[in-house]
Amino acid sequence: MKKLAAFLSGALLITGSAFAGGLLTKTNQSAQFVRMLSRNASTDLDAVYFNPAGLTQLKDGFYFSLHNQTIFQTKTITSEFGQNSNPKMPLLYDKYTGDVKAPVFPSAFAVYKKNNWAFSAGFGPNAGGGSETYDNGLPSFEKQIARIVPKLSGLSALGYPVSNYSVDISFEGTSVFWGIQGGATYKINKAISVYLGARYVPVVNTYNGSIANIKLGTASALQNGQTYLTSAAAAATTKSQATGAAATNLQKLVAAGAGTFTLAQVQGAGYITADQKAQFEAGLQQLGLTAAQISAMNVTTAQTTFATSSAYLAGTAATLNATAPGLADKNVDVKQTGGGVTPIIGVDIHLDKLNIGLKYEHMTIIGLTNKTVVDGTGLFPDGQKTNNDIPAIIAGGADYQVTDKLKVSGSFNVYMDKNVNWGKNVYLEERTIDKNYVELAFGAEYKLSDKFAISAGYLNSNTGVSEQYQSDFSFSNDSYTTGLGFQWNMNERLVFDAGMMLTTYKDCTKTFTEAAPFGTYTETYAKDTFTVGFGIAYKIF
């Protein structure tokens, strides 16, 4: 039952569910991205994030933009745990659904451009950015309890059968890795500009969860788990004392030299009375022996049987008393804070109708410190420090102006996940990476008029995680995203962007192999995401 405390051990892994981006980083940083999906060669205001070296292509002046996205994601975990086992002990739910909501996912950019220089600042959720709620918990929570039930099947002999259970589990986690970016761009010549900057990433994670009202018994008679086990322990103690007394009394007969005789023979010899013989026989029957076995049993064997049973029952009582506290309600209320700095360099190459943007973001070393209000699991000591590093990113893209009205774009992102120690998952397996996460995106924008343009895009994401990485707490799926939207140049200074995107993920399956009675089973992890984004940009002077 000590393992039951692990019901929130994976909470450290929920650091925001992926929207657009790698395992941790979020690249959906503007409404233009939502409507087009390929922005790594941008020369608009969102280039502050996507292609900061391209900002010198703006006209001289001071610019500011504000964006927001509303994001909805649903996660579904299906577990086969217990469905093929004997005795059969499936989980209470076939599917566990988590809702990730980010009604406000804001970002802001500002640029001052003068001659060959552009100074920029940006703000937005670099990772995380939402709350994740599982009203029924997760399979990894409940399996800790379900595994106990077959181990308690022997309590039927004590009058405390355990063939079923119930429990109330809930979990909610929130995570935001804010990104506060600043830097300078310099135009070396007509074709080449370079950028040097950094992003400070303050982090706030919160975890609130509970596992409560655990009940054990039969399907028609469930009782408080702690009370049930302590009552069974008391019954085991009483039975242990009775069998121990019988063993002591029979040992006296063995010491007197009657060990090879049957109970009937020692009664006939006057060593015990008929009532005493009946009591010994009743005790042996309660231990599961038949009348024939008891009749053939000598005193030494009967004494050994009682002594062995007494020791076993005493051990059972001790185990039950030690297990019962683990069925108490557990609550967790933890806040983690910390931060790190990301150095960023970039290059932009402009050749007539072709623009190329390249960017490298260094790995961000982030240390988090626990501020623990309540921790019924012992897994979140107040003041404990952990790492939650963000991998380096190699990003690039190209825009090509096919005609005065049509622009096409391509982008790529490579997340250097193999260089990061991702730690262990909730199953205490190392979260290993087979290859780096790669994204490829294509987009097109068409001007219907001088003031209005429409756009669409496609993004393909290929995760590089191993099967060991995956868990119900943190899983990564291959996906593809489609987006569309429009841009409205309201006047010479004001621009409005809007778009929506839908991300469809491929289901991934993890295979587990446990000792009997559970054997081999699978878990399937699925999710989908829908995003709506709006943005407004204004040239102040």
Assign the structural class, choosing from mainly alpha, mainly beta, alpha/beta, alpha+beta, or little secondary structure: alpha+beta
* Secondary structure: number of strands: 18
Give the biggest sheet: 14 strands, antiparallel, barrel
Beta-strand fraction estimate? over 45%
How are the strands ordered across the major sheet? 1-2-3-4-5-7-8-11-12-13-14-15-16-18
Shape: rod-shaped
Which whole number gives the mean pLDDT? 91
What's the order of the H and E elements? Answer: HHEEEHHEEEHHHHHEEEEEEEEEEEE
- Rg calc: 33 Å
Summary keywords:
alpha+beta, 14-stranded antiparallel beta barrel, 45% strand
Tell me what you see in this structure.
The structure is a single chain. By secondary structure, the protein is of the alpha+beta class. The protein contains nine helices and 18 strands. It has helices at 31-36, 47-50, 139-146, 148-151, 225-255, 263-268, 274-286, 291-296, 299-323; strands spanning 61-79, 95-114, 117-134, 164-187, 192-218, 221-224, 330-351, 354-361, 367-375, 385-387, 393-401, 406-415, 437-447, 452-462, 479-489, 494-505, 508-513, 520-539. It has a 14-stranded antiparallel β-barrel with strand order 1-2-3-4-5-7-8-11-12-13-14-15-16-18. Strand 4 (164-187) and strand 5 form a beta hairpin. The longest helix has 31 residues, at 225-255. The termini are far apart.
